[in-house]
Design brief:
The complex is a heterodimer of chains A (214) and B (266). Chain A is an all-alpha fold and 214 residues long. In chain A, 79% of the residues lie in helices and 0% in strands. Chain A is globular and about 50 Å long. Chain A starts with a helix and ends with a helix. With 266 residues, chain B is α+β, with helices and mostly antiparallel strands. Helices cover 69% and strands 15% of the residues of chain B. Chain B is built from 7 helices and 5 strands; from the N terminus they run H-H-H-H-E-H-E-E-H-E-E-H. Chain B has a 5-stranded mixed beta sheet with strand order 1-2-3-5-4. In chain B, helix 5 runs antiparallel to helix 6. The termini of chain B are far apart. Classes of the chains: A mainly alpha (214), B alpha+beta (266). At the A-B interface, helix 6 and helix 8 of A face helix 1 of B.
């Protein structure tokens, strides 16, 4: 199976997830609101991206929109999940840092013309810190008792974020080296990215499926 | 040819290592934050639990005292009254039978004496449940009366000193301190073989201090059985939001000190 097929095939679970979220939109618990919006946003971006790619239109500008918005959505999700345990001030500072970083990126680095390594790293670092801390947080007995209803959902969603962003960081840093050493693997790196993003979508689906419905 | 490849790998590895380090530091710092907040919440939960237990204890003691008061009242009003009437009727009958055969008069006298014994027991039980003098005269009056009774009855001299506004003390505090004194006095008379008991009680700036001491044997080293009464005292003082300290005096004998902040109670 070619990497391009993998990339297009990764759209299928995302579209299915998007349809599922749309149908069950109002029945999800309030604490999962950000994940719902992330999935809908991601679906739109990926569909537009795939359509642009098929029509051979430049679609890197989508990353300029996608990166800050998805980061802010995830920050909102983690803030909601860790309310009472991690101060709101930290999330406010992170939100400000994200907005400033992406503004600098748009104004000075002009990432809509090429893949922006710095902002992708920045995004992955923030989300990895949050995902790893949340993994420890979700193992605590006190937290498990308090979040009894949503513990499984939080676990799966967090697992998806952790797997995808950990693999992204690895691909960001070692991908160019691998592609340099083995030029025939150029597409495979992106194919791997598609596999990991599919894993993230599957984890999100399991997380939403396991959540108690209102 | 190998050197450029090594440099390329290093150029990927070095920033990757820095990124991993940043992520590790971030996770450690956030985790510290989380643990600190979790600890604060656990402390607050414990505080709430202790407060709830305290309230339950207070309510339990209040209910107990209310019940005692009710029973004392019923004993006095109903049983005491019925026995008093029976005694009077028996006295009348005795008077009528005074000229009759000696046997019936003697039997009647025995019945009257039994009734008088029952009446006396009723009054004693009622008094122990809820002393009328405590209700009417207040704590100091009750303590002084009790001290006088004990001093006159046996070989123990009991002295009570008080200062400050005793009548301003809430009823629950007066009753609680009376119960504490009764328990301590009982312990001293039963176990301590003391010849002197001193009690100082003062109420200054809404702080009530209660100091009890005797010159007896003091507490035994093994408190496992003897400690039950003292545990009850601790519970009672805790219900009043007070602190109890007790032990053996350096010059021999037993001491107990209680401090209550009346504002905390309100």
């Amino acid at each position: 199976m070619s990497s391009k097929s993998l990339i297009y095939l990764a759209l299928i679970p995302l579209i299915a997830l998007g349809i599922y979220v749309t149908i069950k939109f109002k029945s999800f618990q309030k604490k999962l609101v950000f994940i719902k919006w992330f999935i809908l946003f991601e679906s739109c971006i990926q569909i537009i991206g795939a359509a642009s790619s098929l029509l051979k239109v430049q679609n890197l500008w989508l990353l300029t929109v996608y990166s800050p918005v998805s980061t802010l959505i995830f920050l909102g999700h983690y803030q909601k999940m860790t309310t009472g345990f991690i101060n709101r001030v930290i999330f406010r500072l992170l939100n400000i840092a994200v907005v400033i970083a992406f503004l600098i990126d748009i104004i000075y680095l002009k990432s809509n013309e090429r893949f922006d390594f710095a902002t992708a790293t920045f995004r992955s670092v923030i989300l990895l810190i949050l995902a790893l801390t949340t993994s420890i947080f979700l193992m605590n007995e006190e937290v498990r008792l308090r979040q009894k209803q949503l513990i499984d959902s939080f676990f799966w969603i967090n697992a998806g974020v952790l797997v995808y962003h950990a693999s992204s960081i690895m691909l960001l840093y070692f991908g160019p080296y691998i592609m340099h050493m083995f030029p025939e693997t150029y597409g495979s790196v992106w194919g791997l990215h598609a596999v990991f993003i599919t894993i993230m979508y599957v984890c999100f689906f399991i997380g939403l499926w396991k959540s108690p419905k209102q | 040819m190998e050197e450029p490849e090594a440099i390329d790998f290093l150029s990927a590895l070095v920033p990757f290592t820095i990124i991993v380090f940043i992520i590790a530091v971030g996770v450690i710092l956030l985790n510290q934050q989380f643990r600190k907040n979790l600890f604060k919440q656990q402390l607050a939960k414990e505080e709430l639990k202790n407060q709830h237990q305290q309230e339950l204890l207070q309510t339990s003691i209040e209910v107990q005292e209310q019940e005692r008061k009710r029973i004392a009242q019923d004993l006095h009003d109903e049983l005491g009254a019925a026995l008093s009437i029976s005694r009077m009727q028996l006295l009348q009958l005795e008077g009528q039978l005074a000229s009759g055969t000696g046997k019936e008069a003697v039997q009647l006298k025995q019945v009257r004496e039994n009734v008088e014994g029952a009446l006396s027991s009723t009054r004693r039980i009622s008094h122990e449940l809820m002393p009328a003098q405590l209700v009417n005269g207040g704590l100091v009056s009750m303590l002084q009366t009790q001290a006088k009774q004990v001093t006159e009855a046996g070989n123990v001299q009991v002295e009570v000193q008080s200062s400050g506004g005793m009548k301003q003390m809430p009823w629950t505090v007066q009753l609680g301190l009376y119960r504490v004194f009764s328990e301590l006095l009982n312990n001293t008379l039963k176990h301590a073989y003391a010849s002197k008991i001193d009690l100082q009680i003062q109420n200054q700036k809404d702080t009530v201090t209660f100091k009890y001491q005797d010159n007896g044997k003091g507490l035994p080293e093994d408190l496992s059985d003897a400690g039950l009464g003292l545990k009850g005292l601790e519970g009672r003082v805790k219900a009043l939001n007070g602190e109890l300290h007790f032990g053996n005096r350096s010059q021999g004998g037993f001491y107990a000190e209680i401090e209550l902040k009346l504002k905390r109670m309100n």
